[in-house]
Sequence to fold (354 residues):
Amino acid sequence: MKAIGVRRDGDGPELLEKDRPTPGPGEALVRTLRVGVDGTDHEVIGGAHGGYPEGEDHMVLGHEAVGVVEEPNGTGLDEGQVVVPTVRRKPDGETNEYFRRGEPDMAPEGEYFERGIVGEHGFMAEYFTSPADFLVPVPEELAEYGLFIEPISITEKANEHAFATREPFEWRPESACVLGNGSLGLLTLWMLQQKFDRTYCVGRRDRPDPTVDIIDELGSTYIDSRETPVDEIPADHESVDYVYEATGFAPHSVQTVQALAPNGVGALLGIPEPWDFEIDGGALHNEIVLHNKCLIGTVNSHIKHFEYAVETLSEAPKWLLDDLITTVADPTDVAPAFENGDDQIKAVVEFDTL
Ligand code: NDP
Fold:
């Protein structure tokens, strides 16, 4: 079968020929429809994040997938059911307390593999197998856009954790700001628009630009960080109740605190490489304490977030999903899916259709 992966001695994603996998006990065989490409894939390809499966000279890419059950293999799933796989798996087939609790997204490094990212092959292949417990059923009408369920689930988790920190008091948030106009940032912007009166999205692009067009179309305010750095958002616009960082630009971790309104919360999602920069640690400490601010980090997601994400995707406007998908590549000509120009938002590799 065709698969797209990277080799230890290669120089980028390539078409590989692999055997079709055989499902083990408790696993189903899934025929892949579409797999999305995101910033994490680019970090994996560049060697900045993740790692190869042990003893293998290559890793199949892809963690944002949607497919159809080909062989239920006695798992209780129906043949033809559209499913989306979660990403984290038990290391070496063993279980641990995080998986036993159904919270693998809370496991520390070393206690999990991530398919297509660290330690295990991904889903960018004609077929993949997965334990049925890690396959989330999706209505057939959402199959074309099912690759968005994984990134939406990331934001479902981030929002759940961030808002939970504000539960002990009467928090009445009105404004939110997303840092980053990549596919994760833009999907999140739409999600936050459903909850907040005013939304902002920070990028660093000149108009005309397809991501800024989407920000405009959503009725959100575009902020160019070259003109208004994140810590100056309160002076140029307003201090915001919620900041969602999806740039991976390390200074934003600190600037988020300055952008927040008193009692606000910031969620950090970016995964930067080591990055030295100067900060006034006293001012940061003081600002967090005296204004009851909160900063959380959040990574990955699990079954319940995927289930929320199915519901959220069903409410997303079709124009937004269509505008986000800028490339649909065939596995035999995959290079366009990994181009990273300003006109690329979400690239998809399409193996099959329903
Ligand atoms: P992208 O690389 O597609 O998007 C990042 C966006 O941030 C780009 O549009 C980039 O603009 C913009 N950006 C970067 N620096 C600045 C800056 N200084 N000012 C304004 N805008 C800036 O990535 P994704 O959308 O896929 O993901 C976003 C981040 O979230 C990545 O770091 C990714 O690794 C991380 N991530 C984390 C997850 C988690 O579980 N925590 C899950 C998924 C992703 P431009 O293109 O113009 O350079």
Q: What stands out?
A: The CA atoms of residues 57 and 82 lie 31 Å apart. The chain has two domains: 2-137+317-350, 156-297. The domain at 156-297 is CATH 3.40.50.720 (Rossmann fold).
